[in-house]
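Review box. Two proteins, two foldings.
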Amino acid sequence: MQTIKQILCSASLLFFSSLLAAGPDKDSLRFEVLLNSQMLKAVNLETEFIRSIDITPERHVLLSTKNQFYLLGWGGITSLGKSASSGSIRSFAFSPDSLLMVVKNDEICYFDSNKELKKLYKLPGKQMAISAGKDVMYVYDQGPNASGNVVYVITPGGKYAVLLEVSLPVNAVEELDSSLIFASGNKVYQFDLKTKNYKVLSSLSKEKTIISVTSDPACGRIYFSTDRAIYAVNDTSAITVSEGMGGILKFFDDGLVVFDPAKKFLLRIAGIEAELGNAQPYKPEEAQKPKDGVLRNSNIIALAKSEVSDALIISIIRRSKADFNLSIDSMIDLSAEGVSSDVIMEMRKAMKRQSPEQPK
């Protein structure tokens, strides 16, 4: 049986190296599958993770259940610290000086020398979450029954200063330069830390709830997500990055990390900015009509699940007419369904061969 390290390395390197080496096309888009349910089963770790994620100073991915932290890295997945004997972990983030600050019940905690969670500060409310800024930490009301939907900044000595208050619970907070980007309901807002004014950056249809926001520090691009989809801010509108995967977002090493705790799936997408020029504007009632008579994504997935060899699938692609959907969303779906990177690259070549812009 493969170890978790072998599985992680083979999955991650497969997508990273193959899609990075895209030949003369210089395709910079690449995927790394960092964790899935099969990997957890391989090490007999079947547990429910909370909606929080961070990157440690040692560049590991930090995940947590309601009472136990886990570190994910090239060496596998291991527990961190002792299990919380009482209460429930809700959120966590590393402070500017690399202290892990944990929201447990109505307290902010830290790990003491015995690797146990100890109270650091009492929170101003219940059902709160925490986020790190460049120099400060923020806590905010997430619960629907909060007395107010407030974002606080933690001041020296564990005191709290009210930064802003809105009408709906605040689901996510991200500091970007001199602004605070936050999600509340179906909208993403930008709060100017100097003028104390805020404005709507982007919004989805009313039935959707935005659960996470993050930003690319290199270019300032803002990403946000629901449980099932990922979007990017484009001026004052939204463009769709993925309609097949959502979850908690974190930008790390020029890549967008996406964590779906329900599916126990963790993916890193690098080189994503170059692809956004082809992304579709968000449309609340966008319908997609399948086209028959040609080779499509569903056919390739069916072949892969039938354990047809890559060589045979590639041969079929080369001999057939194709209408593949190779958006970021669809490529995530293909990789999650077990289609190899070699086959995905052949699908991309097939679509370029059929492009009217290419010489016959």
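Next protein.
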Amino acid sequence: MRILYVALDQRVPGTTGGAVHVAAVAEGLAALGHDVDVLTGAGVGPFPAGARWHPLEPAFGLRYLRMLRAPEVQAFAVRVQAEIIIERYYNFGGEGMQAARATGALGVLEVNAPVVDYPGSAKGRLDRALLVQPMRRWRDWQCRSAGLIVTPTAAILPDFVPRDRILELEWGADTDRFHPNATGPLPFARPADGLVAVFAGAFRVWHGAINLVRAVRSLRERRRTDLTAVLIGDGPELARVRAEASGVPGITFTGAVPHDRMPACLAAADIGVAPFDLEAHPPMQLAFYWSPLKIFEYMAAGLPVVAPAIDRLSAIVRSGEQGLLYDSNAPGALAACLERLLDDASLRTRLGACARARVISEFSWTAHCQHLDRAFRRAVEARTDSCVS
């Protein structure tokens, strides 16, 4: 099938989860034999192989002006005779769904953030103050225009969306690139003795990197010097997390690292930590809607995962099987999980091996794209059948 992927607010290649997602899906669908064109921003370095990549960014580089590119997107869809148009959802987007409507292509909306407003949302209050609620109406239009919506959880979609038009699907990991024996240059020095716990993320407040720093401090205060922590990434919380780590030995910040160097970074670690803090991000009242790229890549690297015992994470990482999950409301629970893994090498080995086996069978990008392929074919067949009848 001829697929047009519209992801104007991303830059590929890039270090963010969104950029990795776009590249993996485009490559994966092309590997399955689809004819894939991608409209997206150009990152640093060459575009990935497989799909055909076409640089196109929002007007003036501003995401909320994406719709100004709608004529160009539609003209491109006509030129390549797109049968399916995938669009990464954004409140002020919709250019892909407009092009799908105009050309008769199947519109696929990829939703990774809430469409509905969470309780107390400032945006929701503003929308209601405008009386006609233009933002909600536009979001609803995008959902109604989509023949298929792909999302990690239906809890972030409007109730009116029919269940048969929703594909709940987790993100994944490249299990060929991420594996326990990956090598390459490292942005940190591994200590001669002891273990390394790694955090990789965009340093947003709900990613909870500060909780890992506090856990390491707690262990150091009890003279557990056999664990060091490496925090990889950049973002708005980095300065605050660095300040929290001041005076705590054994904590390294690497800054952002190109994604093609991440396999070696994770293979050089012993424990993967994802200390999410749902209370720090009000939209999480709806549900834990992130599909945690870091966790899938930890698992692919053969690392036991340490994360809070929250909805969906408990289904991805079974505590005692692929990692250890803790009660985020219990003081010292994260540090206790780390200490348990420090003291039990056989447990670390077993959890890490089970984590890799599970991500290969269930959470690889290959499996993700195979699910998409089947869903696309079903949706196209259903449209054909409805036209015939």
